Design the sequence.
């Protein structure tokens, strides 16, 4: 009987480990898919007037703070877009903690301005020349 209990415990433990073996790759793929959706929505509207655009922090560095910023048009469903970005940021932060990801801890400075160039929104940062 004790032998059966040990075997059952080992089988349960082994099945848990099998799920964890692929979880990092699956989590990373999910993050990449969500980022692709975010970029697709952000780039879905041509930029003709920079005052119709805003920006939001994107991603989560392992040390805290955003990885970068992304521009989005106010013509999209901004509430849904912001929620999608915030969900992505939380998932990115969770991924960093779960897998012990390291980052450079450099502060990502928010952009100073948004301009339209060739129909695309561009974020300008301090000391950016165009």
Sequence:
């Amino acid at each position: 009987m004790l032998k059966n209990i040990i075997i059952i415990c080992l089988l349960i433990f082994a099945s848990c480990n099998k799920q964890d073996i692929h979880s990092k790759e699956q989590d990373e793929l999910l993050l990449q898919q969500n980022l692709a959706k975010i970029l697709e929505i952000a780039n879905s509207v041509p930029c003709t007037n920079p005052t119709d655009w805003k920006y939001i922090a994107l991603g989560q560095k392992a040390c805290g703070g955003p990885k970068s910023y992304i521009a989005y048009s106010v013509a999209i469903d901004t509430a849904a877009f912001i929620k999608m970005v915030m969900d992505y940021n939380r998932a990115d932060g969770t991924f960093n903690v779960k897998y012990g990801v390291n980052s450079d801890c450099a502060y990502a400075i928010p952009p100073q301005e948004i301009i339209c160039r060739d129909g695309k929104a561009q974020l300008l940062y301090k000391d950016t020349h165009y």
Q: What stands out?
A: The longest helix spans residues 2-42.
